[in-house]
Amino acid sequence: MPTSKVFLFARARADDRLADFAQWFARDYPAALRAAKAPLQRFVLNICDVVPTFRIAPFIARGGAARPAYDVCAELWFAGDAGSDWHTTCLDGLGARAEHVHGYRVDEKVLYAPAAGTPVDIKFMALGRWQDHLTDAEGRRYWTEHARLVPRIHVGVNQYVQNWVTAGTTPDCPTVTGIAELHFPSVRSLGEDFYVSAEGQEEIRRDVSRFTKSATTLCVREQVIVASPS
């Protein structure tokens, strides 16, 4: 049976503590999906509380912003091609507590997978938008070609995933055409091994600039709330 995947990015209200918001999200949202009998196969909650010390900073880092753009990011896999429509039926409670919620349906491409038993729960995520002059097919082609640089320059990465956005699924969500996931074994590895060198950083910058107009970045730790069926 085919599987469909969606992302939900949420930012807590200013008077809500991140730990409380994440705990509530992890408990109540999958419970709402189960109550609706959604064909949920896997649910990963990414908490945006990782603050690495970068040896060489990502050139698209969020800079001096006091908070990341989002506080949590949920990845949801559903059975069936249309399964991802389920996530929008359970957003009322989330919308009441969150400052904003943005959802995207994606085609997931796992390009580099880790060896069995390798930790991959620290991630650098980038929500990108193609350059205005590119078609979606052209942007995807450039991004696919970009993947060859990842193991050579992002030397700490042990899993790399490209998520090609096929639709925004919530009102007023920003335009996003691709969501990258670079997995690392630890916060230290993310900070020290994001780039092999300053020259590598510049090579990545030049290549990404060919096809990416802008990007929002997040450093997260993932928690598997619902594991894939064995």
Keywords:
230 residues, alpha+beta, Alpha-Beta Plaits, 8-stranded antiparallel beta barrel, 6 helices, 8 strands, 36% strand
Structural notes for this entry:
This protein has helices spanning 18-35, 92-97, 136-146, 150-153, 187-192, 198-211, and strands at residues 3-12, 40-47, 72-79, 98-112, 122-130, 159-168, 178-184, 212-226. It is α+β, with helices and mostly antiparallel strands. The chain has a single domain (3-226), classed as Alpha-Beta Plaits (2-Layer Sandwich). The protein has an eight-stranded antiparallel beta barrel. α3 (136-146) packs antiparallel against α6 (198-211). The protein is globular. The mean pLDDT is 90.
* Secondary-structure element order, N to C: EHEEHEEHHEEHHE
Shape: globular
> What is the helix content?
25-40%
What separation lies between the terminal Cα atoms? Answer: 14 Å
Query: What is the oligomer described by this structure?
Result: single chain
Instruction: Please state the second-level CATH architecture.
Output: 2-Layer Sandwich
User: What topology, given as strand order, has the largest sheet?
Assistant: 1-3-2-8-5-7-6-4
Low-confidence stretches: none
Q: Which secondary-structure class do the elements indicate?
A: alpha+beta
User: What's the Cα radius of gyration?
Assistant: 17 Å
Tally of individual helices: 6
